[in-house]
Design a protein that fits this description.
Length: 250
């Protein structure tokens, strides 16, 4: 299985039961996140958007998955996708595609059908966009609409996971690091839920009533995650902002 597919599958499995209300199309989530990111003073370097959702409660064969992949590629506006990477096992069929959507932006999508996940199985669509932004918030909004269009044929509102990463020159003091994180949370009107602080990293999970989707973490809602980590390799501090949570390593 493609590493990103494996990770996103785990996210889907772990979060499906705990995600609250679906995102309202009118909710300006990217606008809120970009404003909060600006408050940190970091220089935006990369951004990402993950989307996943269950298309149906059916275990589909490899050929049916291939047909669905063509429809997804068309909905995403991809041309000349060429061949998909295919994986077929007794209880699992999947197709993956990865390529440049535009210079500096990589799009990855996967269709996975698992036997026994629902009444007769479950088929998921997973999409990931990541890269160096040219237009910031406007570009994220464009990505958001593009992935929603990919789910539209199945009348599915995808679960969306946003991430922004920026650079702050040098190593911050513990006080400076916390001040940057608190500036982000203040811009979101968010309350800290829990956090981890070590010599090189500060990570805070929080809840903002302004963000429309949340996860249950230890019985409390969480929908924002800000982290700062110093990297000795280049002498810079990296700030990460995610909603509802940051995924992977940072």
């Amino acid at each position: 299985m493609h590493p990103l597919a494996a990770r996103t599958s785990r996210v889907a499995g772990n979060q499906a039961a705990s995600i609250g209300q679906a995102v309202n199309r009118d909710e300006p989530v990217p606008h809120l996140l970009f404003n909060a990111f600006t408050a940190s003073g970091a220089r935006l370097e990369t951004m990402g958007l993950e989307a996943w959702g269950s298309l149906n409660s059916t275990f589909m064969d490899g050929e049916a998955i291939h047909d669905l992949a063509g429809r997804v590629a068309a909905a995403l506006g991809l041309e000349g996708t060429g061949s998909f990477t295919r994986q077929d096992d007794t209880n699992f069929h999947a197709l993956y595609w990865e390529g440049e959507l535009q210079p500096g932006v990589v799009l990855y999508f996967s269709l996975q059908s698992l036997a026994g996940a629902g009444e007769g199985g479950e088929t998921y669509l997973l999409i990931n966009l990541e890269g160096q932004p040219q237009q910031g918030e406007e570009e994220m909004l464009s990505w958001q609409e593009r992935v929603r269009e990919a789910f539209q044929p199945w009348q599915v509102e995808p679960h969306l996971i946003y991430s922004l990463t920026g650079v702050i020159p040098g190593k911050l003091t513990l006080v400076e690091r916390e001040q940057r994180a608190m500036a982000v949370l203040a811009a979101l009107a968010a309350e800290k839920v829990e956090g981890v602080e070590e010599e090189e990293i500060l990570s805070i999970s929080a809840y903002s009533p302004r963000l429309p989707r949340s996860l249950e973490v230890a019985g409390r809602p969480v929908n924002a995650n800000v982290a700062l980590r110093y990297h000795a390799t280049d002498g810079n501090t990296y700030l990460h902002l995610g909603s509802p949570l940051l995924g992977g390593e940072y």
